[in-house]
């Protein structure tokens, strides 16, 4: 049976969106960057960003008190004047929120949540609660982009979160970057980062069209979740199009292959409908080629040489990044080279 997910209400201009520090409290070190993101979100989407009660209490306090981070999530869901939820930045310890997360609160108050990286913990909590969630930019990343948001980022958020639901095709970024700028130097806020021409997607295997619900996230965070109560039940994985990305930790291609072997052993790859692999951050061309060898190898071992796989997709730890509605149906058409998100 295909899992069913509640689609939260859209976020038109005038919406109030809670900014959440569910992972690192680093934002207080770069408040100029935070304010830039708040301004750019208001300019592009007409949203009012409201900091959750504990979101700006500093890195040490939030590290020491994971429960208050979960409390902020519940506050944003239950507060009648909050229309949506936005991750300020990722980190590496959202898994510590698991004892405090209340899936009933998510289920009873379905609102759109947008985030990525360590936000994977929260994205999957929403799916476990039966509510769609949105894998996309955090406030301090592409939403506070130097010189203004990239048009691909704006288009992705509008299609997923603002416009009325209708089918739309994902598109390769015409240009991309992983250049790091100094967020503490506010003089750089209007200095556009260097971008390089887009290199397109790579369809690694599969010829027949396939369709399933989107889910996945950051592989390093998924590894922390694996075996915990936050790991989705087998029926939630069944029939999914997996969207998987890697972080600035730069796991080796072999490590990615080992994680995929785990998914094969669990039956996740056996019952998957398709696989989207993000552009891997800080990989050399040689590492990319080795990664593709590992992916094909693991799928061959699991008897899934039929599985449609498209790599180098613009989501996760790359800029600009697409917004992927987790829980929505997506159709892969290898022959046409299309990825279509369905309403």
From TrEMBL:
It comes from the Bacteria. InterPro entries: Carboxypeptidase_A_C_sf, Class_I_gatase-like, LdcA_N, Peptidase_S66_N, Peptidase_S66C, S66_fam. This is LD-carboxypeptidase. It holds the Pfam family Peptidase_S66C. Residues 17-136 form the LD-carboxypeptidase N-terminal domain. Residues 211-332 form the LD-carboxypeptidase C-terminal domain. Keywords: Hydrolase. Belongs to the peptidase S66 family. It comes from Deinococcus arenicola.
């Amino acid at each position: 049976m295909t899992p069913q997910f509640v689609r939260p209400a859209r976020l038109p201009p005038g919406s109030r969106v809670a900014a959440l520090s569910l992972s690192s409290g680093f934002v207080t070190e770069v408040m100029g960057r935070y304010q830039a993101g708040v301004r750019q979100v208001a300019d592009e989407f007409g949203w009012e960003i409201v900091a959750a009660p504990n979101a700006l209490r500093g890195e040490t306090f939030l590290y020491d008190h994971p429960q208050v981070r979960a409390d902020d999530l519940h506050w944003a869901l239950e507060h009648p004047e909050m229309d949506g939820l936005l991750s300020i930045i990722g980190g590496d310890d959202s898994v510590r929120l698991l004892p405090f997360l209340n899936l009933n609160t998510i289920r009873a108050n379905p609102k759109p949540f947008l985030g990525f990286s360590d936000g994977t913990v929260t994205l999957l909590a929403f799916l476990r609660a039966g509510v769609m969630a949105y894998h996309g930019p955090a406030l301090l990343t592409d939403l506070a982009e130097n010189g203004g948001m990239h048009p691909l980022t704006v288009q992705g958020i509008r299609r997923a979160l603002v416009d009325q639901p209708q089918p739309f095709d994902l598109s390769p970024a015409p240009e991309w970057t992983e250049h790091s700028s100094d967020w503490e130097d506010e003089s750089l806020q209007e200095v556009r980062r260097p971008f390089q021409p887009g290199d397109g997607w790579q369809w690694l295997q599969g010829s027949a069209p396939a369709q399933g619900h989107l889910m996945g996230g950051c592989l390093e965070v998924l590894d922390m979740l694996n075996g915990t109560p936050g790991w989705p039940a087998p029926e939630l994985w069944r029939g999914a199009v997996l969207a998987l990305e890697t972080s600035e930790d730069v796991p080796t291609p072999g490590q990615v292959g080992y994680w995929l072997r785990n998914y094969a052993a669990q039956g996740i790859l056996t019952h998957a409908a398709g696989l989207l692999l993000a552009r891997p951050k800080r990989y050399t061309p040689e590492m990319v080629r080795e990664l593709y060898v590992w992916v094909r190898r693991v799928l061959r071992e699991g008897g899934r040489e039929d599985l449609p796989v498209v790599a180098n997709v613009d989501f996760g730890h790359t800029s600009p990044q697409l917004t992927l509605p987790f829980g929505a149906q997506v159709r892969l058409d290898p022959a046409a080279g299309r990825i279509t998100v369905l309403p």
